[in-house]
Specification:
By secondary structure, the protein is α/β, with parallel strands linked by helices. The protein has one domain: Rossmann fold (3-Layer(aba) Sandwich). About 45% of the residues lie in helices and about 15% in strands. The protein has helices at about 20-30, 45-55, 70-80, 105-135, 145-150, 155-175, 195, 200-205, 220-230, 250-255, 260-265, and strands at about 10-15, 35-40, 60, 85-90, 135-140, 180-185, 240-245. Strands 3-2-1-4-5-6-7 form a 7-stranded parallel sheet, with helices on both faces.
Length: about 270
Amino acid sequence: MTCVLLENKVAVITGAARGIGRATALVLAQEGARVGLVDLLPEVEETAAAMARSGHRAATAVFDIADAARVHEGIEALRQMLGPIDILVNNAGIVTNVASVARMTPEAWQREIAVNLSGAFHMIREVIGPMAARKWGRIVNVSSVAALGGLHNQVGYAASKAGLLGLTKTVTLEHARDGITCNAVLPGLIATELVSAMPAEIRDSAVALTPARRLGLTDEVAHLIAFLASEPAGFINGAEIPIDGGMRLNASSLGSRREVGATRRAL
């Protein structure tokens, strides 16, 4: 008999159309979860199709997580399709403007904070009450190693990802007694579509900053998330878990190295 971590659990994943979100959806389904896929991109249907090919069904919802009203409607729709939500993975994240603090536009700043940080808050707010009532819940926020040391020309991204760490800890303080865990994973340079599209020279320079001397894999991040979403991870709470091949150990030098430009859009 095959043992699965998440049998009969319902999981909702934001940013599920691509990259880490797509990989997480596939892994959670393999571990027995019924999965709801959330994204603003219609390509989220392709993730559902990939799951169907592997024998797993998924519910999809296309909405902007920055809009609290749309989040409420979307979560209610997913509950109708899947049942009570046990697991929430806040993976959605965007970069709208590569610019210094002095040059970043207020509009770009507000959009990045709205999606990367407020979006996670809106999602948590919709699921936390029912989770507390059932005395069980798992929330995983996908932050970034950029949250630890900042990132030149990415103030909105770095600030929003750092904000997720404060959100994570506060949820733990308020709801650990309700059987809810809330943890943050901090990916480094991961082999997503965006990173694969980089010029090889830039990508290689970025990898040189990583002691592991390679890109991380989306499946590696997904399996970490799956464990944090499981019953055996019940005493891991309020944690910040890097999955970066050691990149954070070079964080203090990122601001002064030319290679930092290679990591900007991938962290």
